[in-house]
UniProtKB/TrEMBL annotation:
The keyword Plastid does not apply. PROSITE patterns: HTH_CROC1. Residues 9-63 form the HTH cro/C1-type domain. It holds the Pfam family HTH_3. It comes from the Bacteria. This is Transcriptional regulator. SMART domains: HTH_XRE. The keyword Cell membrane does not apply.
Length: 70
């Protein structure tokens, strides 16, 4: 059974006043990747999840959670 992963990337990005383009540049991906992550259509690799967490000075667990958690 596949668990659904939810994220708070859009919430964190807007609270840091980053545009999608700025965040994409910080973590080394395209703006389309950020859009897909924010729309819950793409689950990033562990490496990208860590880069995103670092961009927001938080833990990966603060950004990503399994369905039914947090």
């Amino acid at each position: 059974m596949k668990n659904t992963v939810f994220n708070k990337v859009k919430y964190k990005r807007t609270s840091f006043n980053f545009t999608q383009e700025q965040l994409a540049n910080i973590v080394g991906v395209t703006r389309l990747t950020i859009i897909s992550i924010e729309k819950q259509k793409y689950e990033p690799s562990i490496g990208l999840a860590i880069k995103l967490a670092n961009a927001f000075n938080c833990n990966v667990e603060d950004l990503f959670m399994l369905e039914g958690e947090g």
